[in-house]
Write a structure and sequence with these properties.
The chain has helices at residues 35-65, 82-87, 91-123, 129-141, 144-154, 161-168, 182-210, 214-222, 227-255, 259-264, 276-286, 290-297, 301-321. By secondary structure, it is mostly helical. It has one domain (90-321): MetI-like fold. The longest helix is centred in the first third of the chain and has 33 residues, at 91-123.
Length: 322
């Protein structure tokens, strides 16, 4: 029963009921309301892409490594561990394995030092930081084929800008043939890998440095800690989890990279700069022995899995401890 105009409801009486449309409380849920199903649908194309371009070739490589498959033939049979037993006593495989370990360890150590130094400089309020960050990312953005061809000219035996610069400064007495000497060729490969990887590592370390709580740094300043003490006792310990992740990415990319070594030296001189990736390409694709090429390519897989597990666990522990 409606109240007359201007009349207030009596004290203690129930408020008037609000009209509700029939079925409004039981409205059908749409796809946008089902976050679990929507998330799976949106991840579906990415998952299919990874399975098609990485998962299937990976499984095929495992099958080929246990087979006698040859290029140009569709028939093959499983031979067990024969391919792995054949490469173990091979001196060329030993050299490729050593080169892979040397390239990975030396380049990532240099990348970590350069990336940390660059991140600390950029975080210190250097003028023109945005322009420097843009220039710093160029090596990572440039296609590796174009970059490697440019480095081929930089290390050219006749037109090397490094040789001419050192000669003009009076620091060079004997002309350096970068791709004619195994030690110099490995030095060139390591240099190019460091040049390629340290911008990516710098971005990761810089992001971790920016995420350090400002009150911790201010407390260190108030306590009288200088630059080096803050860097060594405050910043670097807090950066350790991020640095481990950066090194993990670098180790994975460097130890499995084919393009830089193949474009710079093609494994020369005299097959002395082969890494496992280029040796697998030489044996499997150029040599036609798909089974042995797959065995060489998969040799470091267990090692990389163990290294990744250990580094991720270490990063988690240091993050929790921080």
């Amino acid at each position: 029963m409606a109240l007359p105009s201007g009349t207030q409801p009596a004290s203690g009486s129930a408020p008037p009921a609000v009209a509700v449309r029939p079925g409004a409380a039981f409205r059908r849920r749409t796809l946008a309301d089902r976050e679990d199903l929507l998330g799976r649908l949106m991840l579906g194309p990415t998952l299919l892409y990874v399975i098609a371009l990485a998962g299937i070739p990976f499984l095929l490589a495992i099958v080929l490594s246990f087979s006698d498959a040859r290029a140009g033939s569709l028939s093959f049979s499983l031979v067990g561990l024969r391919n792995f037993l054949a490469i173990l006593p091979d001196p060329q495989f030993h050299r490729a394995l050593w080169n892979t370990l040397l390239l990975t360890v030396v380049s990532q150590a240099a990348v970590l030092v350069l990336a940390t130094t660059s991140a600390v400089i950029l975080d210190a309020g250097l003028p023109g930081r945005r322009a420097i960050r843009f220039l710093l990312l160029l090596p990572w953005a440039v296609p590796v084929s174009l970059a490697s061809l440019a480095w081929v000219w930089i290390f050219d035996s006749t037109f090397s800008v490094i040789n001419w610069t050192l000669k003009a400064l009076g620091l060079l007495r004997t002309w350096l043939f970068w791709f004619g000497d195994p030690a110099l060729a490995m030095t060139a490969i390591i240099t190019v890998h460091v040049w390629r990887m340290f911008p990516f590592a710098t971005v990761i370390v810089l992001a971790g440095l920016s995420a350090i709580p400002q009150d911790i740094r201010e407390a260190a300043v108030v306590d009288g800690a200088g630059f080096w003490r803050r860097l060594l006792q405050v910043d670097l310990p807090l950066l350790l989890p991020v640095a481990i992740v950066a090194v993990l990415f670098g180790v994975t990319f460097t130890s499995t990279d084919l393009s830089v070594v193949y474009l710079l030296t093609n494994g020369g001189p005299y097959n002395s700069t082969h890494v496992l990736a280029t040796l697998a390409f030489q044996r499997g694709i150029l040599g036609g022995d798909l089974g042995q090429g797959a065995a060489v390519a998969l040799f470091l897989l267990p090692v990389l899995v163990v290294v990744a597990a250990v580094m991720l666990r270490l990063a988690r522990r240091t993050e929790v401890g921080a």
